[in-house]
Amino acid sequence: MWVNGLKWMFLIIGTMIGAGYASGRELWEFFGAESGLAIILFAVLFIICCSVIMSISYKNESAHYLPILNKLMGKKLARVYDVMIIIYLFSTTVIMLAGGGATLEVIHVPYWLGTVIIGGMVVILFLWDTKGMTSMNAFIIPILIIFLIAILLMFQSLKGFPIEFKINAQHNWPSALTFTALNILPLIAVLGAIGNEIKHKGEIWIASLGSGLILGSISFLYNESLLQVASDIMLYEIPLFAILKHYPYYMMLIMSALLWLAIYTTATAGVFGLLSRARAWLKGPAWLIALFLIAIMAPLTTFGFSNLISVLYPLYGVLNLFVLASLLLYPIMNHRSL
Question: What stretches pass through the bilayer (predicted)?
Fold first, then answer.
C-alpha cells in the first residue's frame, strides 16, 4: 500500500511540477505579495480534489478520464469537457516542449534543438508505456524536490529569512481557486487513467495528503523567495534564474538540468493523458501514437514559453472553476458512494 501510494504521489507531483511551476513562472502569475493564505487554501483544495478524483477512478476501475467526467457533471457536459481536456492537454504539452527549449538555452543549445530533444525523449519513454512514466517519476521527482527546497532555503538564509505572515494582509486568497482549478484537468486526465491499477483505498490518502502537503510547502517557500527578487524577474524568461544568479554558475547548470527533467515529466504526463484517451480511436503501440502527437505539437512551440503561460494559464484557470466546484461538491452530494 505504501509503495503504491508513494508511486501515485510522485505521479501527481510530477504532473504538477513542470515548465510553469518549477520555473517559478506559474507561481508568479497567480500569487506574489499577500498570498500566504492563498497557498494554504490551495494545499487544502488540492488534497480534496486529488482524493475525490482517485476515489472515483478507483471505484470505476477507469483506464481514462471520461468516467470521471461522467460522474462529476453528467454525460452531456462531460462531452464538452472531454474536448476541453484534449485541447488543454495538447496546448499545455506544447508549453512543456517550449519550456524544454527555453531551459537548454542557458547552455547555448538552440531553442529549436531543445524542443526536438525533449520531444524525442518523450517518445522514447513510451516504449515502456505506463510503467516507464511511473518509474521515471519515482526516481526524478524526489531528487528535484530535495534540490529545489535546498536552493530556496539557502537563498532565504542569505536574506536572513525575511518571511512574514500577517493574517490581515492576505488579500490575494481568491487566486487559490483559479490556481487549483488550473491544475485540475491534467490531474483528472492522469489519475483517471490509473483507476484499474489502484489496489487499496489507503493509496489514495497517501498520495493525496503527501502531494498536497509537499506542494503547499514548496509553493509557500518558492513564492516568498520570488518576492525577494521581484525587481529582477522581468529580466528572465524563467524566474528561478533570478534566484540562481546569487549562486555559482555550476548551481545554475544543475538546476537547469533538474528543471528540464521536471518539464520532461509533465510533458510525458500530458502525452500520457492524451494517449490514454486516443486509444479509443487510434490503434498501435504507445510510442507511435506519442510520436504522432509530438509531431503535431512541435511547430506550435515557436510562440515562446512565457507568452504561452501568461495567456493560456489564467484563461484555463477561470474555465476550470466549474470542474473545481464539481469536485468540491461531489463528497457532499455523494458521500455514501465514496
Answer: 7-24, 36-58, 79-99, 111-128, 135-155, 175-195, 204-222, 249-275, 287-305, 311-332
